[in-house]
Amino acid sequence: MTIYAKDVMVKSFDTINQDAPIENAIDMILDGKVRKTGHKTISLMVVDDYGQLTGVISMYDILYNLRPDFLNLSVDADTLVWTGQLKRFVEALKGKKVKQVMSTNVVSAKFDDHIIVILDQMIKNKYRRLPVLEQNKPIGVIYISDVYCNIFSSKKEK
Questions:
Q1: Of the candidates 158, 157, 137, the residue with the CA atom closest to the CA atom of residue 13
Q2: In degrees, to the nearest 5, what angle opens at C-alpha 121 toward C-alphas 47 and 135?
Q3: Residue 95 CA to chain centroid, in angstroms?
Q4: 3-state secondary structure string, 35-88?
Q5: Which residues contact 110 (CB under 8 A, 6 or more apart)?
Q6: pLDDT tens for residues 15-41?
Q7: d(CA 41, CA 143)
Q8: Long-range contacts formed by 150-155: CB under 8 A, 24+ apart
Q9: Could you tell me the strand order of the sheet in which 43-47 lies?
Q10: pTM, rounded to two decimals
């Protein structure tokens, strides 16, 4: 059984420009594509004006940035009163650009990486997806669920 990045990567994926309003990313993730494994895409590859990868934005990144910053300082959210605050947090978030919310320390895979190399990166770093890059431009995305399905699918002979 020999599987490479090119065998499991999704070639149809959504990108968004780093200067786009965060509302665009929110809408694109809400309307995310359903992959052939049945899993819905909950992230977007972020690119600059030249198509170069600058980051990834996920549902987690958006929800993380919805929270007030002081919650990152060991403040327990359950000790505060939140009634009527959510709308204010959403409006503040909507005033941001994608580049203010995205994750920038993105690890990527190469087209010809072996599946074990990819799996090792994903497991050790708890990544759910890895962009596949060629000259720093995204050409595919590998999702952990697609790796799993590809390895264990009884319909395929490897």
A1: 137
A2: 35
A3: 21
A4: CCCCCECCEEEEECCCCCEEEEEEHHHHHHHHCCHHHHCCCCHHHCCCCCCHHH
A5: 5, 132, 133
A6: 999 999 999 999 999 998 888 778 888
A7: 9
A8: 150/3, 150/7, 150/8, 150/115, 151/1, 151/3, 151/115
A9: 15-17, 43-47, 53-58
A10: 0.89
